[in-house]
Specification:
alpha+beta; four-stranded antiparallel beta sheet; globular
Length: about 220
């Protein structure tokens, strides 16, 4: 009981609650109550953990230059546009979600992709290396156990708008339907066992400003 009182008093001085420390360290509040964080080195450690949430969850993303990053020893030779952590697959362990810009086998043009990593013995290991979600990915965030995405919709040119004139022999015909970046979608995905599966639309068929507002909620 005295330890619990000391913990509370010390945390009030530092601005931390047992719940804050639990989130930063992964320890249960019951385990935290057993310790007295009045020791100087422990206070420094707690401050450091609270200042570095990604490292507190076991992942560190290190930038070497604009096209080379390292995630717990895993080499990412791409530009990174987003980094989030959370329990994606519901196994009780924190995963890392890294947004990278790269081409893929089925989508040869460079685009924004989503890679998900788990941690094994302190090292990052792939959980899911996705080529795409639904539409054309612009951004993502992790919220309430799901991945929320901001996407532009892929649309096919209507048949009556297609030309019937054969293309010139030197003209390269796009292998995919023409797309637009003016129609936006906000969707949510959840873990489906072997990758991310569509869960629901938050909003679709809207403009960028409206979609961004719903995406950020």
């Amino acid at each position: 009981m005295e330890q619990g009182i000391a913990l509370t008093a010390s945390n009030e001085k530092m601005g931390f609650s047992a719940e804050d420390i639990s989130k930063a360290t992964g320890l249960s509040t019951e385990d935290i109550e057993k310790f007295n964080p009045s020791h100087k080195m422990l206070r420094i450690l707690l401050l450091w953990l609270m200042a570095c949430p990604a490292m507190a969850q076991g992942f560190q993303l290190r930038k070497e230059h604009d096209s080379l990053y390292w995630l717990n020893g895993w080499r990412l030779p791409y530009h990174v546009y987003q980094f989030q952590t959370g329990d994606v697959d519901g196994d009780g362990h924190i995963d890392a979600m890294v947004g990278v810009v790269k081409p893929t086998r089925f989508y040869p043009e460079k685009g924004r992709r989503l890679f998900i990593f788990k941690q094994v013995n302190g090292k990052a290991r792939p959980l899911w290396l996705g080529s795409k979600l639904g539409g054309i990915l612009q951004d993502f965030r992790f919220i309430d156990g799901r991945i929320r995405s901001l996407e532009t919709a892929r649309t096919t040119v209507p048949p009556h708008h297609r030309t019937t004139v054969p293309p010139h022999p030197c003209t390269t015909v796009p292998p995919h339907p023409r797309t637009t970046d003016t129609i936006y979608v906000v969707a949510e995905y959840k873990w489906g066992g072997f990758g991310m599966a569509f869960d629901r639309y938050i909003i679709k068929g809207t403009d960028k400003e409206t979609a961004t507002k719903y995406f950020s909620q």
